[in-house]
Design goal:
Shape: globular
Largest sheet: 18 strands, antiparallel, barrel
Structural class: mainly beta
Strand content: over 45%
Radius of gyration: 23 Å
Helix content: under 10%
Distance between the termini: 33 Å
Number of strands: 19
């Protein structure tokens, strides 16, 4: 039965390729259709420290994108369907329906903004707190309205209203929450794509367990275009959250730093680091630091290779009585090869190794994932 199910999906992808193999996708096309198939093997699907459970995943997606511009108005709409099917643990099967709708508007040369709606859905089978054994679908819904007024050749005011909702289909270490925010920022433009911005964001929301909260985030951020080949960014902020019930308040510093260097016409390197403060159920909050190195090599016009290494450290703070301190270290390394076989048809292959070490017993794991993909755009 599993073989018949996989054969059916492979056959569907082959039919799509056969029907549209002669069609090409142009970057200026108003409407662009896409279809893709990815076969993936995970040798430790549930990130277990012992007795790992491996499985094959078939991921089939299809969608359409509309991109239309009139003068200073631009409309983008992207809708799709992504089907996840597991060979052995088929109780984890599910279908996602991501979408994005965006209107970028402009009035004259000094006033512009955007309205945006989006939804993202993805499977999360690694639950670091509760050891889930069934699919956990993470859903993120975003609504945003933003405006920018450049009142001086070197100065601009930014403002935005937003609503972000994150929910999970199963009990996880990260709670469901909805946040409504208002932002105001002042930006200095130095020319050649460089700028410095001071932003203040105020928010109110509801969390699954702790209830209503108020949030405040102040951030200073800069992007620097040293040359056409070297660009960098740097930011620092302070995030604080206070709950109406009290007892679960937290605060912490946030920061980002990174650079992209076009070393040669065929080789570029991206390096980045960041720190974020996140809500948790049992531990109330955690501070996560990430370091990333990602080189890319354009071997030929149609063939490219990339590698990445990411080191993450998560410090769980304000633990409930009796839980003690928890610190995690996660290392992820990967290699990938992308081949644009023809203008509409692309092939990809990727390998990834992931390992976590935790101060809590039973949370260490190692896993390897391999996947092959084919994508079609027309």
């Amino acid at each position: 039965m599993h073989l018949r199910r996989r054969a059916g999906r492979v056959g569907l992808a082959a039919l799509l390729l056969g029907l549209y193999g002669q069609a090409g996708a142009d970057a200026l096309d108003t409407v662009q259709w896409r279809a893709g198939l990815r076969l993936e093997h995970d040798d430790n699907l549930f990130a277990r420290p012992q007795d790992p459970a491996g499985d094959w995943l078939t991921r089939l997606d299809a969608g359409v994108r509309l991109d239309k511009q009139w003068s200073r108005q631009r409309v983008l709409v992207d809708v799709g369907v992504v089907d996840y099917r597991y060979r052995d643990y088929d109780n984890n099967d599910f279908t996602a329906t991501p979408y994005q709708a965006q209107w970028q508007w402009g009035l004259g040369n000094d006033l512009g903004g955007e309205f945006r709606l989006s939804r993202e859905e993805s499977p999360d089978l690694t639950d670091p707190a509760f050891g889930a054994r069934a699919v956990n679908v993470k859903k993120q819904d975003t609504q945003r309205a933003a405006v920018q007024w450049q009142f001086h050749p070197s100065w601009a005011l930014n403002g935005a209203l937003g609503r972000d909702k994150t929910s999970y289909s199963a009990l996880t270490a990260t709670p469901d929450e909805t946040v409504r925010t208002a932002e105001l920022g002042l930006r200095y433009l130095s020319g050649k794509g460089s700028y410095v911005e001071l932003m203040q964001r105020m928010g109110q929301g509801e969390e699954e367990v702790q209830g209503d909260f108020d949030e405040r985030h102040t951030r200073l951020y800069a992007e620097w275009a040293y040359s056409a080949k070297l660009k960098a960014h740097l930011g620092w902020g302070r995030l604080s959250r206070s709950y109406e019930q009290g007892g679960a308040d937290y605060s912490g510093n946030t920061w980002q730093a990174g650079a992209r260097w076009q070393i040669t016409s065929k080789v570029d390197l991206t390096v980045s680091a960041d720190q974020a403060v996140e809500s948790q159920l049992v531990f109330r909050s955690r501070t996560v630091r990430n370091w990333l190195v990602e080189p890319r090599w354009q071997i030929s016009q149609r063939l490219s290779a990339r590698a990445n290494y990411q080191h993450s450290r998560a410090d769980y703070e304000q633990a409930l009585p009796g839980l003690g301190q928890r610190d995690d270290r996660t290392r992820v390394a990967g290699l990938a090869l992308d081949w644009q076989l023809t203008d509409p048809l692309a092939l990809s292959a990727q390998w990834q190794h992931e390992k976590r070490s935790s101060s809590y017993p039973g949370l260490d794991y190692a896993r390897q994932r391999y996947w092959l993909g084919v994508a079609l755009a027309f």
